[in-house]
Amino acid sequence: MKKYFLLWAMVFSLVLGGKIVRASVLDINQVGSVTIEPTYAGQIVEGGNLKVYQVATVIYKDGPKAYQIQPVFSAANLLLDDANLDQLNAEYASRLQSLAASAPVFKDIETIPATGVVIEELPQGLYLFLQTQAAPGYELMKPFLLTLPKDGKLNVEATEKMSLLNAQPRKPTTVIPNKTKQRDKELPFTGQIWWPIPILIVVGIGLILLSFRGGKSYKH
Predict the structure, then answer these.
(1) Which is nearest to 159 in space by CA: 32, 53, 47, 39?
(2) I need a surface site. Which of 26, 104, 158, 185 has the fewest CB within 10 A?
(3) pTM over 0.85
């Protein structure tokens, strides 16, 4: 009796194990969605674009999920596991950003609406989100990574904090007064000194008077 019980237990375990493995394989075909809300002071920021790149696909092989990176992003030398993706998200996103120019865009949102962005029908994988055109008055959204599934969920929401565009300080302007009209009224300086002229006139008149007196004395 005990022998038959152990046999049935083994058969049940194999059947159940097969169902679990099969369920994992089927789960890979499920798609998810990502909701992105760029915010400032609690309000969604409208405007700017958003480009989505699929960095890696999810695979299930004899254990928990793993990531298979796309060849175009392999030069980033990333250690892809959930722990590193959480702790090194900003660093990994920065590395991948330099390679994105050569990668195909998976989803291209031209303008982020006032309600945020909902990207649906995303296969399970690792995604890079980049903004190349900022919303008016704001800096570019910093690049970031998201995985599907995330904590067992296929519908993921992300809130990205935006920063105001730094106001450029106004350059001081130097006002130069226009003295052209004032100078036009002034006599040009020729290098001659004018103060001896009155003295010379007086001396000249005196000499003329002396000459008249001398002429009268000569007649007598």
Answers:
(1) 39
(2) 185
(3) no
